[in-house]
Design a protein that fits this description.
The chain is an alpha/beta fold. Helices cover 41% and strands 25% of the residues. Helix 2 packs across helix 4.
Length: 111
């Protein structure tokens, strides 16, 4: 299950699990309309290996600015509560799955 992330709940959300991914998106963004359902599907299939939050950059411009989000879609990867990596743009589903599998494996290895 994904959660809408705001400036009010981001700190608690990213601290809850070793691996958290925030999807920065906008309603007007066509690549976001492709990526968001894919990442949600991959999240659902991951057996909760990571937490997924959604950040609408139009509703949360301060979060976009805080994390230097220059374009959407952008995935921001948090490891142990800290922003660790940023991936921008749309990708084919298999490439996104390989990337997420790698992040999950790294998180499991780091324990």
């Amino acid at each position: 299950m994904t959660q809408t992330i705001t400036a009010n709940n981001i700190e608690a959300f990213v601290a809850e699990k070793p691996l958290v991914i925030l999807d920065f998106w906008a309603d007007w963004c066509m690549p976001c309309k492709i990526m968001t359902p894919m990442i949600q599907e991959l999240h659902a299939a991951s057996n909760d290996a990571f937490k997924l939050g959604m950040v609408d950059v139009e509703d949360q411009p301060e979060l976009a600015e805080r994390y230097d989000i220059q374009s959407v879609p952008t995935l921001l990867i948090f490891k142990k509560g800290k922003a660790a990596e940023k991936v921008t743009g749309a990708f084919p589903k298999e490439k996104l799955k390989r990337y997420l599998d790698k992040k999950i494996a790294e998180s499991n290895h780091e324990g």
